[in-house]
Design goal:
The protein is an alpha/beta fold. It has 22 helices and 14 strands. It binds phosphoenolpyruvate and magnesium ion.
């Protein structure tokens, strides 16, 4: 992409933010100067002084007093954001250089563009640091937040967030659910319409953001919030009751967690254990790769809190969007189809072994099960099992205790795995359907892309047929089947999933009470009838409307 490939929208800062924003500009200029000086030194040491001279020109330009005053004036007098001031001013300089009929000056234009990019990157970096260190209540409005940035949000102060890009099935949205921060991910361009201090409503349930709401809308939302609180209080009475259907069929309702601190939420809400522990968040949130000991400690803490209830530890699902800051590979055009998840673990086996050692040691402490993510071929499963076996031998040789009969499962989230499911099942003790990825790979819809978010549909008939195939295989082989994608945490799908034969669901902890309520309000016969009728429909829209209607008939108080 050429240097004109990005545009900084004209944004304004409020009067009381002017000092802070000017300060951010100064810091960005200083940080950019330090970077250029460091580069100058490297080039000078390696290639000699004459090659380093180019950096002097950059430094001179960056520290030019006239440029500095012009930028500050734009923020102070015209209330432009520092990003917009930088972009507008430096682009104007570059244009002037380009238009002068001198080869030397025309070349300087690209230096100006370089400085613009460097300053913008540093301005953004400072913003991101500020985000990690907020100390008073804020609502975050951002172009994008990665899952690892989201994981590092301070939930004591971040009341809600909205991003322009991303999708509702993204890991950023999942982490928001884990932190119980109301969020709308992938709402489209809106940042030019809003400034710090403006009033906004963020409706995470409906995926709606309302800028500058009128009195009537505000009153409606206050009323809704009150109603939701009352409903949540009413559901608290179900906490200690089982998630059995009205005709007495037991549904095992478990929680999905990303952080060990969530176990408490899961149990407080009446979860019967943890059906999915996304262990990669130990990596995403950390400055350094967690050691075996750090992982073992985290697992031990979860096991202790669970007090005998089951814990399914999923091995690292790193890659694609789940990378540490600065590790995103911009050259990888298809990261969701690339080296991620179990593929990465099998490529970098040292890291995989370290984790498996921690899992196995933890297996001596409670009801631990291990699960491999994104398996797409039987050979992958066998290789993963071989590494596990190898690590077991190692621990045995060293006399370290672990559970030799540790149950081994896999995520079913690639259509190929469903098609070949009968060949996987003999090597498995259980499996869990990951609808988040299953939807994206079945429908060829990026779960992270708002442009196609309307096509990302859990109730697309193609997805439902694959789920049904997987459930049937579990029944044929008498192996437990779980569903742990976002779908199982949405009450619209609960009756359908039970009707398809599922008896285990793993959901974000905050969804447990509502899902339990649905389970306890229906009979399996009702559910089977609903599943049979849905199976005869040929499109997602009809199925979704039908399921919503059925849920409203069952529980009129629920908002869907
Ligand atoms: C899934 O894909 O459904 C799943 C549970 O895994 P993740 O959301 O972490 O990719
Ligand atoms: Mg997945």
């Amino acid at each position: 992409m050429g240097h004109e490939g990005f545009r900084i929208p004209r944004r304004f800062v409020t009067r009381d933010a002017i000092d802070d924003e000017t300060d951010r500009l100064e810091k960005a200029i200083a940080a950019s100067g330090d970077e250029i000086s460091a580069n100058r030194k490297i080039v000078c040491d390696e290639l000699g002084e004459q090659y380093a001279a180019i950096f002097d020109a950059h430094l001179q330009m960056l520290r030019d007093a006239k440029l500095h005053d012009e930028l500050v004036e734009m923020i102070r007098q015209r209330h432009y954001s520092p990003e917009y001031a930088v972009s507008r001013t430096l682009r104007r300089y570059a244009k002037v250089f380009r238009e002068v009929k001198s080869g030397y000056l025309a070349e300087r234009a690209s230096d100006v563009v370089d400085i613009e990019k460097r300053l913008l990157r540093n301005l953004l970096g400072i913003r991101r640091e500020e985000l990690a260190n907020v100390s008073s209540p804020v609502i975050v409005l951002a172009h994008n937040l990665t899952p690892s940035e989201t994981a590092n949000l301070n939930r004591d102060f971040v009341r809600a967030f909205v991003t322009e890009v991303g999708g509702p099935g993204s890991h950023t949205a999942i982490v928001a659910g884990a932190l119980e921060i109301p969020a709308v991910v992938g709402v489209g361009p809106f940042l030019t319409e809003v400034s710090g201090g403006d009033q906004v409503i963020i409706d995470g349930d409906q995926g709606v953001v309302i800028l500058h709401p009128d009195e009537e809308t505000l009153a409606r939302y206050h009323y809704e919030a009150e109603r939701n609180r009352a409903y949540a209080t009413q559901l608290e009475s179900l906490r200690t009751l089982p998630a059995d259907t009205a005709d007495g069929v037991h549904i095992e309702l478990l929680g999905n967690i990303e952080f060990s601190s969530e176990v408490r939420h899961c149990l407080d809400r009446g979860g019967a254990g943890v059906g999915l522990y996304r262990t990669e968040f130990l990596y995403l949130g950390a400055e350094h790769e967690p050691t075996e000991e750090v992982q073992f400690e985290a697992y031990s803490s979860v096991i202790e809190q669970l007090d005998g209830q089951p814990l399914v530890i999923r091995t690292l699902d790193l890659g694609a969007d789940k990378v540490r800051p600065g590790q995103f590979d911009e050259d990888d055009k298809n990261p969701f189809l690339g080296l991620r998840s179990i593929r990465l673990s099998l490529r970098e086996t040292d890291r995989f072994r370290t984790q498996l050692r921690a899992v196995l040691r933890a297996s001596a402490l409670g009801d631990v099960r291990v699960m491999f993510p994104l398996v797409s071929t039987v050979l992958e499963l066998r290789k993963a099992r071989m590494v596990l076996h190898d690590v077991m031998e190692d621990l045995e040789d060293r006399g370290i205790p672990f559970n030799r009969d540790l149950p081994v499962g896999m995520m079913v989230e690639v259509p190929a795995a469903v098609v070949m499911i009968d060949h996987f099942v003999p090597d498995l003790d259980f499996f869990s359907i990951g609808t988040n990825d299953l939807i994206q790979y079945t429908l060829a819809v990026d779960r992270d892309n708002k442009e196609v978010a309307d096509l990302y549909n859990a109730c697309d008939p193609a997805v439902l047929r694959l789920i049904q195939m997987a459930v049937n295989a579990g029944r044929r082989h008498n192996k437990p089947v779980n569903v742990c994608g976002q779908m199982s945490g949405n009450p619209v799908y609960t009756m359908l999933l039970i009707g398809m034969g599922l008896r285990q669901m793993s959901v974000r902890p905050s969804a447990i009470p509502e899902i339990k309520k649905v389970c306890r309000s229906v009979t399996t016969t009702q559910c089977e009838d609903i599943a049979a009728r849905a199976a005869r429909m040929d499109n997602a829209r009809d199925i979704k409307n039908f399921l919503k209607d059925e849920l409203r008939k069952l529980l009129p108080e629920i908002s869907v």
